[in-house]
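Page header: ASSEMBLY MODEL / three components / 1080 residues total.
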Amino acid sequence: MQILKLTCKNLRDKIAAGEIKSINAVSAVFEQIEKNDAKIGAYISTFKEQSFAKAKEVDEKIAAQKPVGALAGVPIAIKDNMCSTFGATTCGSKILQNFHSPYDATAVEKLLAADAVIVGKTNLDEFAMGSSTENSGIKQTVNPLDYSRVPGGSSGGSAAAVAAEMCFAALGSDTGGSIRQPAGFCGIAGLKPTYGRVSRYGLVAYGSSLDQIGPLTKNVEDCALILNVIAGHDEKDSTSIDEKIAPVQDWLATVNTKPQNFKIAVVPELFKGADSEVVAAVKNAIEFYKKNGAEIIEISMPHFDYAIATYYLIATAEASSNLARYDGVHYGHRSKNANDYIEVYSKSRDEGFGPEVKRRIMLGTYALSSGYYDAYYLKALKARNLIRGDFTAAFAKADYIIMPTSPTTAFKIGEKTNDPLQMYLSDIYTIAVNLAGVPAISVPCGNDNNLPIGLQIIAPAFEEAKLLQIARLFEISRP
Amino acid sequence: MAELDYKIIVGLEIHVQLATRTKMFCGCELVFAGEPNSRVCPVCLGLPGALPVMNKQAVEFAILTASALNCKIAKFTKWDRKSYYYPDLPKNYQISQYDLPVGENGFIEIPLADGQSKKIRIRRVHLEEDAGKNLHSGAFSQVDLNRAGMPLMEIVTEPDMNNPQEVATLAMELQRIVRFLGVSQADMQKGHMRFEPNVNVVIKKDGGEFKTPITEIKNLNSFKALEKGTAFEAKRQLNEFLERGEVMKSGNKKTFGWDDERGVTVLQREKEEAHDYRYFPDPDLVPVTVDEKWLTDIQSGCRELPLAMQKRFITDYSLNDYDAGVLTADKDTAGFFDEAVKAGGEPKRICNFITQTGLKISGEKNCRVSQLGISPQRLAELAKLVAGGTVNATAAAAIFEKMMQDDSEPQKIAESLNLIQKSDEGELAKIVDEILAANQDAVNEVKSDGKKSKKAQGFLMGQVMQRTKGTANPQVVAKIMNERLK
Amino acid sequence: MKNRGKTVITIDMDKQKITVERVKTVAKLARLNLNDAEISQFSAQLSDILQYIEKLNQLDTAGIEPLAHCLPVSNCLRDDIIKPSLGTEKTLSNAPDSDGQFFIVPKILDESGNL
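Prediction written out in full:
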């Protein structure tokens, strides 16, 4: 049996049943990492010794018939922007290359409490700012399906690690598409839950009002399993959802329920900007749903076109403030060339941050600066309200909205690095979802020249159960 | 300067450190002399990924204070980030409130020397987090973050004060209010209260009106420094105007530091570029909405302010200004006194119990008067015993101490301690006669009616009291003694 | 949220969106010690991006409330209960320079701290 082909859920079930030992799963994963990761570059750090120790502990518990967690013995990777007391937390940045967190992120605590084996921390665009993982200050990650192409980003390391079977699932974070787009580029499933569904405590902030942790997995069922483990209100995160408003559910228990009498909205004008193969694959998926009982309606989302402009003001404004703390005073890189304390700031930051991070800090600082606030930041907050209004209107008419995850398949490494605006525009389909705070998932829906195409399904806030069900339906019965 | 027609204009920015147990946005304990950097956590160290969560007590303290200062309380407030780089500010932004403070448009009434009072308008009351401390030693600076994230309440007045005395009076009145409400220890030396006056002068000269540039004064660590610093700065500005004709123009407000030793204000070094704080709503924190019920609950803690209570004690209870001031220094004491009087205790006598015995003991025990173990009702009963002549003042002090451990009626305690006042003339006459016989010298002194007569009489009274363990009714003893020594 | 002051800068569609001078000021505000090449590159790139962002001006946002939080959450308050701190050693464990008690920085000469 090829352990590495198993899904998270299958592996968990087999480990719990004593059919497979966790230690064998861990050892298969490390063999795979040692064989392939030098080329793929998915991991920034791995924890071999710790992983074997944890696997042994889980195996012993199971042998002794002691209770184990929902992810007992399953090798999982986390994006390296989640704080952990083991290893460094680099956030893909030179400025944090040697930063060792004295605390664990809530999502990390929850994985550990569920007896997952955290095998390593994955590469990302520096501070999660990017769509290709080319902005990492640490290393380059390539697409496991085509080494000349990007894995997507910013959770490119997590997507590549799952796609290359170097773990069974991974956590990523999604501020403007950073889970869904790399999942689409690497041919796996990626879920961005409702904003606030998963605690952000310990997730290194990029755009605080948009950031959300979620799973990248081999299939939709695994998304449900991981969401079960990481979701829930956290008293350490003021913006996490109150259980009274939206209680956590057993998404795994309902993921295989076939949805009945559902309506899907499509936005024809949005297909204009995508490659024809992408459009064809997404249209096929829509046809599939039609055959499976969905009513398809066409709607318009008049403010969708403003999402990128809105996003790049709000996210960068928040980022300019969130990243002010990296100053070489209390932790992180301090310039050796600083002659006074002002230079400790400006030189440490100049040496520690890469160009995309600097660009976004500059844009965000500008948008918030005196005299420009109303024209840029305030205007963007109002536009955000209009964009959310488009979603509210759409969900008054339909249960889901379907569109591509990205306008293209994975692009070539270096293709867009010199034109930041073109890179930003490639996030057209994913970004509005973060502005509205609603959940969305990307699942593979076809190929173009052997490169996967992502189908994006969007649901109203808190409706992860419905979202997972319809995605699962496609996954198990697609042509 | 005497002939010059001018007016000093002062507004105050006041930072009050709130007496919560923990910091504004994390559970670190508030300490004032702890090991450096010992009360720091991921949140107040500004570590990547750490998130703030509001301290409910701090929010309630701010609403309470704003209510006491007659402010309009916002039904909806939010948090904003104020950006600037400084080593004692780990996130390089301070969480504060920009456009929606907890309270706005209030006033504070301050007593003036002539017995009148003056209303100073309060522009706003808002909450924010404190920064840490930078200490300078040699070529380096040291940063301690124990203070970083402590809850601060900022109170801003309108420029309604016109002389340094008013500034100091406002400061003292505000100190009394926040102590009275129990929201701050308000110790200026410990930096619990920091006053920063914004001072300028309006001069009428040659038919024109001239305004000097507004300056801010920092490092004022006592009420005296506040008054002296404000006076010095106003005078300095007048001189600048007279010598160089300096008047207000746009640009950065200058900040002066008060040098207490030299008694002068010194211009502080600042970076050249203009401040641009880039305020924007903090996405990590959610808004605070204050509904009627919550507001009423909080405000039930401040129906009457100290100055109003002090005035009421003087008019209704015929206390003098000093006594009324001591009683209203803190809310607990004032409330305890008020209840004891309402339970039937004679005001002056209750006042004496509290100021002469109660505050002394509570000071030693470091607790409140209400926590001594005596209810206001029991204290009123004790006062009635004294008024009715059942026990005398000396015995009452002993009974008071016993009452702290024993909640029985004071009458019973007096009986058990054998402290019921002896008023029986026959019994007392016997004792007086014995004392007089044993102290012939003193008797002679009294009879001689000379310089030492009064003192000798006091000595004899003391002997009687000693013999009766303080239970003799002094009026009865005096009457008998007067008859014997005529 | 209320508007800050009356002056709203309207963006000029024709000119380069952000001048080199403005980029230098913003870099200073953001504490980034950019070199001349970076300054000129950022001026061009930010101008492009700002040019694109100007499409927001086509939106009529009169009467629209700014949306800072996309979900309705308020009053997430914490009881005033002491939680353990990290302690001095852990607090300083990532410090680039410390003396075991304090974070150490080169001497601070100005008084630009703001409280």
